[in-house]
Amino acid sequence: MTRLDLTGLITRPAQVWGGIRLVPLVRAEPLPGLRLHRRIYEGYGDGARHGEVEVGPGTRYVSYIPHGFVADWSGDGSQAAAYGTQLGVGDDDGHGHGHGGGRGDGEGHGQRHGDRPDPYDRSDPYDRSGPYDRLDPYDRPGLRPETVPVRRHHRMVRRARAGKGGKGLSHAAAATRCRFLPLHLALEGYLSLHFGGPSIAWDEWSQQAVRQGLSPRAEDAYLGLGVRGLTDALRVFEIHPGQCGVMVYTSDSLAAAFVVPHPDDYRALHPTLVEDLYGELVHQYAFFGAPVAEFEARIRDGRHLETLADLRAAARAQERVWSETHEAVLARELLSTSYSFERVYRRGSYELHRFLPPFHRDRQEQHIGELISDHKGRTAYLKTFRLSDAQIRRGHLLTRLADHDWHLGRTAEALGATYDELVRRIRAAGFESLVNTHAVARRSAGRAAGHPDVGTAGGTTGHPEHPEHPEQATGRASPRDAAETKET
Q: What is the 3-state secondary structure (H, E, C) of the chain?
């Protein structure tokens, strides 16, 4: 599986509210054997819902996490969990105090880091200079930042646990359900991209790069409440009969895709779209973009329109034209891109994956996300997050560095850039703390002087295990094994 398959989902005419376009996705028949439900995470004291997830030994993911989704594989919709139901003792047990990774000005802030303090984070999570400071959870008398409550989760995906003493789920019900954190599963996958850092300790990399890898890593995102017009559009427009998904566009640029297996699931989860995270580009398009054109179907009068059946056939032909235009134009980048998928959970004939794009610089629109597919490859659940241009550049740079064992000289040659230009790109991407400034300056000076131990692109010569100058490169194991990085 390399591409998204929306077989069985029918595109209905778009609904427009200013610069927001909602494209309903309808199923002729719901997918059997799978249901999705929402689990609400209420805040503690001040109503804040910042979450911290243990994704591995010494590694945590911190973000604004308002809810989780419960996947039910029992196949019996009548036995599904009710809206907001708790799944029993221990599923998401424990809560504590610490710094959440969210912002109250309309931004959510996902962060992946180890247990060490973060001396490189210069962001101010309590800044109220943004236009959405009414959402500030810290605007309470006597509430200090160090006392912001944080809910702690044990895993991104967790099998439901049976309750004890007659409380919670039975063992049979718990065996058919799991809880996962929607969208954060995909965001954590992006943040963990080559999280272990250099696999070889080239002397251009700092001690932080050698010992800690990319820890910490942080990315910014906006809440749906901060995307102009989205709340009103979701509130005003009708939900179609059989609707199991929606594609959200801002200024006719795809912001997110959301698909569920059953129409009842969509009706229950439709409001969660305003609590999802959206990329910076999506926020900018919605705020600065002009209103988009509404969908209009025009049927010309003629001799072939003599009965209501003829008129109905002409209307359906217009719907088919819209559906084909949508897939060929508006959703083309999402559906035509080849993704790398990672399976994180399997139950019965369904599998839960998260996916990453190829990070090609020639594609302006790239998405990360997660999906549940059946044994035929059909999409039962899908949620995507559009990356900003800066996030694509960071992913592209990390991927190319990893492809060349983090050797700056070989990476620069592959990118068609000079050594100094590659260093500038690394710093511009926010990874300046990973670079050993003195070693880079020494290499740049040696290259300018034509020193024999410097390659054409400014890197060391010789194989890393047998360098001509042992002090320039030493082989070492990665601080985190690649398989462990995927697991975390």
A: CCCCCCCCEEECCCEEECCEEEEEEEECCCCCCCEEEEEECCCCCCCCCEEEEEEECCEEEEEECCEEEEEECCCCHHHCCCCCCCCCCCCCCCEEECCCCCCCCCEEEEEEEECCCCCCCCCCCCCCCCCCHHHCCCCCCCCCHHHCEEEEECCCEEECCECCCCCCECHHHHCCEEEECCCHHHHHHHHCCCCCCCCEEECCECHHHHHHCCCCEEEEEEEHHHCCCHHHHHHHCCCCCCEEEEEEEECCEEEEEEECCCHHHHHHHHHHHHHCEECHHHHHHHHHCCCCCCCCCCCCCCCCCCCHHHHHHHHHHHHHHHHHHHHHHHCHHHHHCCCEEEEEEEECCEEEEEEECCCCCCCCCCEEEEEEECCCCCEEEEEEEECCHHHHHHHHHHHHHHHCCCCHHHHHHHHCCCHHHHHHHHHHCCCHHHECHHHHHHHHHHHHCCCCCECCCCCECCCCCCCCCHHHEEECCCCCCHHHHHHC
pLDDT tens per residue across span 342-371: 999 998 889 999 999 999 988 789 999 999
Q: Confirm if 420 and 458 have CB atoms less than 8 A apart.
A: yes
- For 74, residues 6+ apart whose C-beta sits below 8 A from its C-beta are 35, 80, 173, 176, 177
pLDDT value of residue 100: 32
| pLDDT by 10-residue block (mean), the chain, 488 residues | 90 92 94 90 58 86 90 65 38 35 44 49 37 33 49 79 56 75 94 91 90 89 93 93 96 96 95 93 91 81 80 86 88 94 91 95 90 92 95 95 94 94 94 91 79 42 37 38 35
What's the whole-model pTM score?
Answer: 0.77
